[in-house]
């Protein structure tokens, strides 16, 4: 019943927030681009990243500053933080919600329920997890003038550079938490040498963060969802690296009462050939495809076993089982056997090779 009510509120908010805001002169507003939430010593700490030059149209000159306040009650902490800004807080351009790991582990329910009812918070802002939200949003520098913008740009560019994270909108996070047969995953990010870095994914079971995936595991997750464009797979042959990049996927997941079947195929290109294999030889290509098929399916199996251990259904396996069987058993996948059989194909484009006569 609780989830039904919350989903109704989500739909209503999605409609109401799509309308126009009252007009205000830009020089009278404090434009908030990022919202961070921590929990320490029994208090919520709210941090706003605010543009310091509201009317400068040159993006290169735009900078931001942060303000923070804390309180035992989350709504009060939000209000107190807005009060310390000399101008009226304006949330129409808030594009990023930054949650600390402490919030993700133990306080998501309070955050989700309140933000659903808050008319100022956009349902389309991106959500990420960090170790310390206040410290993260305050880590500005010459190359990080506006942290929130850098985070969103990094997540967007990751789709074609490594597939180590996911773009998670707030409305999608709420849906995953509240929906039957689904759990949520959110990108974890950090700052290293004035550069935003993706560190993998955090996993949820219902409202609670229960574990993390490494960057490599996150890439396999994206591959299984057919949303990755550049997953790197490599293997050493006598201490020499042979590396491939998966650029196209067509993978299907099916759940029965005892087995999780993963089938389909991927297409990859050769990135590095230190062993100097003869890629013009059809038999050599076939052996490499067989080897990398094994490597890929092992990684898929290991990932799903980890998800089973955490009971984090970020692949929506419970939902898939229900759609196929019409039997409500969202946990059936947790003890199911894993049968991964995805074909690995190395692109022949640009490679001229001889086909040996079978006779």
Characterization of this structure:
The chain is an alpha/beta fold and 359 residues long. It is 33% helix and 31% strand. It has helices spanning 2-16, 74-83, 101-106, 108-117, 133-137, 147-161, 170-178, 215-224, 282-310, 317-325, and strands at 29-40, 43-51, 64-71, 88-90, 96-100, 126-130, 185-191, 196-205, 208-213, 231-237, 240-255, 259-273, 337-346. Strands 1, 2, 3, 4, 5, 6, 7, 8 and 9 form a nine-stranded mixed β-sheet that branches. Strands 10-11-12-13 form a four-stranded mixed β-sheet. Helix 1 (2-16) runs antiparallel to helix 7. The protein is globular and about 70 Å long. The relative contact order is 0.10.
Task: Quickly describe the structure.
The chain contains ten helices and 13 strands. It is an alpha/beta fold.
Provide the descriptors you would attach to this structure in a database record.
2 domains; nine-stranded mixed beta sheet; GMP Synthetase, Chain A, domain 3; 10 helices; disordered N terminus; globular; 359 residues; alpha/beta; single chain; four-stranded mixed beta sheet
